[in-house]
Design a protein that fits this description.
Layout (H helix, E strand, L loop, with lengths): L4 E4 L9 H8 L6 E6 L11 H10 L4 E6 L4 H9 L4 E5 L7 H10 L3 E6 L17 E5 L15 H14 L4 E5 L7 H7 L3 E4 L1 H5 L5 H19 L1
Parallel strand pairs: 1-8, 2-3, 3-4, 4-5, 5-6, 6-7, 7-8
Length: 228
Amino acid sequence: MVKTQFSPSLMTMDLDKFKEQITFLDQHVDSYHIDIMDGHYVPNITLSPWFIEQVKKISSVPISTHLMVTHPTQWIDQLIKIRSEFICVHAEVMNGIAYRLINQVHNADLKFGVVLNPETKIDIIMPYIDLVDKVTIMTVDPGFAGEKFIDSTLEKIQELRVIRDDNNYNYLIEMDGSSNKNTFEKIQKAGPDIYILGRSGLFGLNENIEKAWYEMLQDFNSAKQQIY
């Protein structure tokens, strides 16, 4: 059984407290989630490879880059060069280039993840699911922080667990979107391996990152007790 992992979304951190928050979180988290948006695949424009380089200057925690872009091939070389440990691409833009991208990332000794939007079915990734290291289920519409949680997406997390168990696959299952006190219980019932934490689940809980972290853990463990 894969242990529960937490991956803060740095798009939602307090950038004026960048070093303070990274220094604390380095002692507690399993990875950092960094969104790169191109203004085309989604209307927003957010972080960049340059931001990843700044994080790596002061942190040794693995970085998972989530490419919300129309043309992922334009970004892969940069992310390989700066050694983003996971490079995650939306399935919706991978048709015709999936195997090429997966091989390119694996040949660089990095890990490849695939991301599914709320309305995208798992069927689309079945031809290469055995090759990926992580599958991310968007539990909100992508592109903005604070979007409404979509309960039906949790069924895909459960389905991915069954597929993994039945076939002895090794991919991690990650959820992305609105993971917080109000949703922890139902997300835990679905059983992802990795919880991405944003503004509502971590950074917005308290101005002090240490207090915010332990409040998040209290919320998470309280939800677990409701299940068990």
